[in-house]
Design a protein that fits this description.
This protein is an alpha/beta fold. It contains 19 helices and 25 strands. Strands 1, 2, 3, 4, 5, 6, 14, 15, 16, 17, 18 and 19 form a twelve-stranded mixed sheet that branches. The protein has a four-stranded mixed sheet with strand order 20-22-23-21. It is globular.
């Protein structure tokens, strides 16, 4: 069986100019980055009254067995084009952290990939590097302000702006610096987050344009004075230089699928520690170019889809016209109690037991007024009885399940799904609404997500956290949505509690105000905003072969 990288290497790609022409992008709007990838200069796109249909792809709670949400997104976009629809794919960019850690690449798999896979998974067009540089420029200017007299009166104990790096490195979670004497500055405790958790990543993905980007950067709160009044990025005069660093990164990236269909990749916030959606600019660009736009939200529907609806749609005025919920027999069996090593053995009862997780996600999506179509991402080990069990479960839960073979067959393996989803999208987003209203208090918003989506009996907010949230409300940020940072593996904060746990407690350990992005982050349980590498990281198997080609990416 060919690996993803072997399939990608054998692909026959078209020059990016042909892909842009297929998408209706004029030459003057294309900024090539080599033969097969380019930036889209949205200022040079022709005016369009088209408003494509927006299709969200989400999934059940992820397991080590794999669900294939990105693979399904790619397969669905290819399938829509195969059945005669003008479809665009709109995804996030992969982070280097998972590439070298556990997850591997984020460009799809099998015969449903975006290309060039190796470049997309590594440095791509440099967007993440630009975001990292802009973030750390602000950090450097904060310490420089302090070194030269701290004229803004920033309290060293209340600096909230950390540094970032696009790599899993647990050793940097908490650090002390600068050290080494008077010439290096004033020692203080700080730390690093991964770049995808940066507020600048969120800002880039939620900004309307370059002007809005600069305004949002200026609104970042970097810390507080002794009287607890905020110090903004614009006070330090860093926002304009940061915008200059991001002038190219704000432009969406155009690539292609293995079937030479256009795909826009832009931005990459994680859904377990950020809002988990590609950029608003990219989505709007795709909606103006295509009749149907397939996008995804990270991890399970309790994280990515909830944030897509409550944060991205709320801020950008978007509505999903159809929703696809990806599930696999393998993942359902794990949710039903089967160990990873036993997944190849038929176990229909475990599929039914794991169906509780599928049911929970279907019920949760209904709270936003949407009914998903279940896409069963087919694996070679699936049996007819197991597939039938998933179809029966979906029907029992009030929706339809479709077996999809896009991993092995490309778009041809998802044509039935494409026809069903296109028909649903044509009907429009009947009844869509976010989970909570803008004017609900911040603590109540956190509690609402905890109770309604995670099914917690109690959401623990300490008196100090409640006081902090009240302070932010008094500062004028009470209308912000909340962004829950939580393990992706469970509805609870315990990753070992698979299936559909309820009646548990969700402990909010910390809250962070992202004033520029426009939301409040609630960090729950043991989730880390700087992940660590596993005992055997994927990086150990990535290398250049004798021909100078990359091996080991998957």
């Amino acid at each position: 069986m060919q690996t993803d990288i072997e399939i990608a290497r054998a692909a026959k790609l078209e020059p990016i100019s042909r892909i842009s022409a297929k998408a209706g992008i004029p030459e003057e709007a294309l900024i090539p980055y080599g033969r097969y990838k380019a930036k889209i200069d949205c200022a040079h796109l022709p005016a369009s009254d088209r408003q494509g249909k927006l299709i969200l792809v989400t999934a059940i709670s992820p397991t080590p067995a794999g669900e294939g949400k990105t693979t399904t997104s790619v397969g669905l976009a290819d399938a829509l084009n195969r059945i005669g629809k003008n479809a665009m794919l709109c995804l996030r960019e992969p982070s280097l952290g998972p590439c070298f850690g556990v997850k591997g690449g984020g460009a799809g798999g099998g015969k449903s990939q975006v290309m060039p896979m190796d470049e997309i998974n590594l440095h791509f067009t440099g967007d993440f590097h630009a975001i990292t540089a802009a973030h750390n420029l602000l950090a450097a200017m904060i310490d420089n302000l302090i070194y030269w007299g701290n004229e803004l009166g920033l309290d060293l104990r209340r600096i909230t702006w950390r540094r970032v790096l696009d790599m899993n490195d647990r050793a940097l979670r908490q650090v002390v610096g600068p050290l080494g004497g008077v010439g290096n500055g004033y020692p203080r405790e700080t730390g690093f987050d991964i770049t995808v958790a940066s507020e600048i990543m969120a800002i880039l993905c939620l900004a309307d344009d370059l002007t809005d980007l600069e305004e949002r950067l200026g609104a970042i709160i970097v810390g507080y004075r002794r009287d607890k009044s905020p110090v903004f990025c614009r006070d330090i005069k860093a926002h304009r230089a940061m915008t200059a660093l991001l002038k190219d990164a704000v432009l969406p990236n155009l690539v292609q699928t293995l079937e030479n269909n256009p795909a826009i990749l832009h931005g990459g916030p994680f859904a377990n520690i950020a809002h988990g959606c590609n950029s608003v600019i990219a989505t709007r660009t795709a909606l103006a170019l295509g009749e149907y736009v397939v996008t995804e939200a990270g991890f399970g529907a309790d994280l990515g889809a909830e944030k897509f609806m409550d944060i991205k749609c709320r801020m950008a005025g978007l509505k999903p016209d159809a929703v696809v919920l990806v599930a696999t027999v393998r993942a359902l069996k794990m949710h039903g109690g089967v160990a990873k090593g036993d997944l190849a053995t038929e176990n229909v009862q475990a599929v039914r037991d794991g169906g509780a997780n599928l049911k929970r996600h279907i019920e949760n999506l209904a709270k936003f007024g949407v009914k998903p179509t279940v896409a069963i991402n087919h694996f070679p080990t699936d049996t007819a009885a197991e597939l039938a069990a998933v179809e029966e479960l979906a029907a029992h839960y009030g929706t339809q399940a479709v077996v999809c073979r896009h991993w092995a067959e490309g778009g041809a393996g998802a044509e039935e799904l494409a026809r069903i989803v296109a028909a649903k999208a044509d009907l429009g987003p009947n009844g869509f609404a976010p989970l909570y209203e803008d004017d609900l208090p911040l603590a109540a918003k956190i509690e609402t997500v905890g109770r309604e989506i995670y099914r917690a009996a109690e959401v623990q907010l300490s008196p100090a956290i409640r006081a902090q949230l009240k302070t932010w409300e008094d500062m004028g940020y009470g209308h912000f949505p909340v962004c829950m940072a939580k393990t992706q593996y469970s509805f609870s904060t315990d990753p070992a509690k698979m299936g559909a746990p309820e009646g548990h407690e969700v402990e909010v350990r910390e809250v962070r105000l992202s004033a520029g992005a426009g939301f409040v982050v609630a960090i729950c349980g043991d989730i880390m905003t700087m992940p660590g590498l596993p005992r055997v990281p994927a990086a150990e198997g990535i290398y250049l072969n004798a021909d100078g080609l990359i091996e080991g990416l998957f």
